[in-house]
Design brief:
Strand 1 and strand 2 form a beta hairpin. The termini are far apart. The relative contact order is 0.20. Strands 1-2-3-5-4 form a 5-stranded mixed barrel. It contains 2 helices and 5 strands; from the N terminus they run H-E-E-E-H-E-E. The longest helix is centred in the first third of the chain and has 20 residues. Helices cover 23% and strands 35% of the residues. The chain is of the alpha+beta class and 133 residues long.
Length: 133
Amino acid sequence: MGFALLTATFAAPCALAQQADAPQKPGKMIHAGDVLSGELGVMKVRDAKNRGKRVATYQITSEPRRLPPPNGLCNLETGPETFQLIPTNDAQAAQLKSLSGKEISVKVDEVACAKDAGEMSEAIVTKWSVVAK
């Protein structure tokens, strides 16, 4: 009885570890008009284009999503999980500031893989709008 219990105790963590090591499938494809949901995070970074001034950078962490070609998986096995939101005007910047730390949903109109130094996420959403929940 004791040996069987001991064997079961050690076998369960090994099985869980094997499941965790199994390769994940790529996320579903994201298209223009699709919605991304997740917690909105904010970081302060130094903007090289603006004399090192600290600016807010916003990102959503979501389920992995593949991007349409030519971006594909952004050199990741499952697709990007972090999506940086680029405000195009002061109203969008103010809206993101007020939603920082909250669960939000955004309709994606334009997305690409991160390429430039200073981009803090795996993918960049350059055109988007907040969706009311």
